[in-house]
Design brief:
Blueprint (H helix, E strand, L loop, with lengths): L1 E4 L6 H10 L4 E4 L13 H4 L7 E3 L5 E3 L1 H11 L12 H21 L10 H22 L12 H10 L14 H10 L2 H12 L1
Parallel strand pairs: 1-2
Antiparallel strand pairs: 1-3, 3-4
Helix pairs in contact: 1-3, 1-6, 1-8, 4-5, 4-6, 6-7
């Protein structure tokens, strides 16, 4: 398999999951500006959507969209329990979390990366809207260590990635307590440390 990624982008989530599972894969960096891969390919021929993550399977098929990729990977090694089994209530809850993260946190943070071209009043609105979602997450994680309860899942890899963007968006997580605790907890996992190191060195 090949994982096409950009450093610290949402592709970090499937990268962490691949490391958690110990699956063999090749990490291929993508230049987000030129859409050229580190091995000289036009990324748009791999994923015409133009953004990471993309997972190229050994048979040449390409899977896109991070929440789908992480579930696909988790199901390759169900014994690692990074996702509840398909068809269970737990899996439905996982999908609920992944949808919330992608639509409310991921998409909610996107305008903040455009602060140079979006009026300040709009940026303030989007930031406060995002912070309300953080308030909700704070309430959940104040009661349990991970999104699904006591066990780390692919949803936590995704949330860790999204919360890490605070570094680039000029705000910190100090107004909450459970959110930075979650970042610290997940960040201490060997898989996360290896993934971050690999992306930093690329």
């Amino acid at each position: 398999m090949k994982l096409y990624y950009a450093p610290y982008a949402c592709s970090l989530s499937p990268h962490i999951v691949l490391r958690e599972l110990g699956l063999p894969f090749e990490l291929v960096k993508v230049n987000n500006q030129t859409k050229e891969t580190a091995d000289g390919r036009d990324f748009l021929t791999i994923n015409p959507k133009g953004y990471v993550a993309a997972l190229e399977l050994d048979d040449g098929q390409v899977l896109t969209e991070g929440p789908v990729i992480v579930q696909y990977l988790a199901d390759l090694q169900p014994e690692k329990e990074l996702a509840p089994p398909v068809g269970t209530w737990g899996r439905t809850r996982l999908q609920e979390w992944l949808n919330f993260l992608t639509s409310e946190i991921h998409a909610g943070a996107a305008p903040l990366f455009r602060s140079a071209v979006i009026p300040k009043e709009a940026i303030d609105y989007f930031r406060e809207r995002l912070f309300k979602r953080f308030d909700y997450l704070e309430g959940v994680l104040a009661e349990q260590p991970y999104l699904l309860g006591n066990a780390f899942s692919v949803a936590d890899a995704y949330l860790f990635t999204l919360l890490g963007w605070s570094t680039f968006l000029s705000f910190d997580l100090d107004r909450w307590s459970a959110l930075p605790a979650h970042v610290k907890r997940v960040g201490e996992r060997p898989s996360v440390q290896v993934a971050l190191q690999a992306e930093a060195e690329a």
